[in-house]
Amino acid sequence: MSDLADEVDELPLSTRLSIADALTLGNAICGFMAVYFTTTGVLVPHLMGTSDSAMSKHSAGNAVTLMLMAAVFDLFDGLVARKLRSSAMGAELDNLSDLISFGLAPAYFVVVWGIVSDDAHGKVAAAAAVLVVLAVVLRLARFSCTTLREGVFQGMPSPFGAMTVVGLVLLELPFVPTVLAIVGVAWLMVSRVEYPKPRGRLALATFCWTLVSMGCIAAWTFDVPGGHSLLQAGCALQCVAAATIPCFATTRRVNTIRAARRSARAQVR
C-alpha cells in the first residue's frame, strides 16, 4: 500500500483530478447514458417492431433528463473550479464532455427522431444532426483559442443549444419547421452573438429552470394529468428564450457601438 501511495504522490499535478474534474466526468457519463437510453429504449424497439409507446416515452424522458443533468454538472464544475481549483486537464475534460453531452447526445436524439417519426425524413434529420455536431465542435474549438471580455460567451452556449434542439423535437411541430429551427440553433452556436455567463443570480435561475424542466419531463413520462401540457409549455418557453435572447443581445451591442461612436465624435469636436 505504501508503494501505491508513493506512486500516487509522484504523479504529475497535471494528471491529478480535482473535484471540479469529477463533476465534469459526471457530465460525460450523463451524455453517454442519454445515447444509451435513446438507443435501447427508442431506436432498437422501433427497428425490431416491438416498440411500446409507454416504454419509448419513458426512455426518451430518461435521455432528456440525463442531458439536463449533464447541464447541471457543467454549471457546477465551473463554479467549483473557480472556488477551489481545477487540474491542468480541466479545460480539455470540459470540452470533451460537452461534445458528448451537448453535441453527440442531442444530435443522436434528432437522428432517432428522424427514423421513428412517421412524418419525418431520416436523411434530412441526419443532415440537421450533423450540423448540430459540427456547430458544437467549432464552438468549443473557438472557445479554446480565443479570449473574450469577462462575463460573456460568443455564440449560444452548447448546453442551451442542446436543450433547445431537444425541446424543438419534443414540441412535435411539423417536420420542415422543426428541421429549419434546428439548423437555426446550430447557426446561433457558431455566431458572434454574445451571451452572458451563468454566474450569481443567473446561475441560480439556470439551475432552477433546469429543475423545473426535469419536473415537466417526469410529469410527461409518467402520464401525470396535465403532464403533456407542462412539457409542451416548457419546450415552448425554451424555444422562445432561444429566439429572443440573441435579439436582446444584438440590440444591446448595437446600442453600445452607437454610443461609443457618438462619444468619439464628441471628443473630436
Which secondary-structure class do the elements indicate? mainly alpha
Described by the principal axes of the CA atoms, the overall outline is globular
Query: How far is the first residue's CA from the last residue's CA?
Result: 77 Å
Which CATH first-tier class would you pick? Mainly Alpha
Total beta strands = 2
Helical residues, percent: over 70%
Q: Would you identify the regions where 5 or more consecutive residues have pLDDT less than 50?
A: none
Beta content:
under 5%
Number of alpha- plus pi-helical segments: 9
CATH architectural group:
Up-down Bundle
Mean pLDDT: 84
Order of helices and strands: HHHHHEHHEHH
Count structural domains: 1
Spatially, the strands of the biggest sheet line up as: 1-2
InterPro entries: CDP-alcohol_PTase-I, CDP-diaglyc--ser_O-PTrfase, CDP-OH_P_trans, CDP-OH_PTrfase_TM_dom, CDP_ALCOHOL_P_TRANSF_CS
Membrane topology: Multi-pass membrane protein
Protein name: CDP-diacylglycerol--serine O-phosphatidyltransferase
EC number: 2.7.8.8
Describe the fold and architecture:
The protein has 269 residues and is mostly helical. It contains nine helices and two strands; from the N terminus they run αααααβααβαα. The chain is globular. It starts with a helix and ends with a helix.
Could you give a quick summary of the protein structure above?
It catalyses: a CDP-1,2-diacyl-sn-glycerol + L-serine = a 1,2-diacyl-sn-glycero-3-phospho-L-serine + CMP + H(+). The protein is an all-alpha fold and 269 residues long.
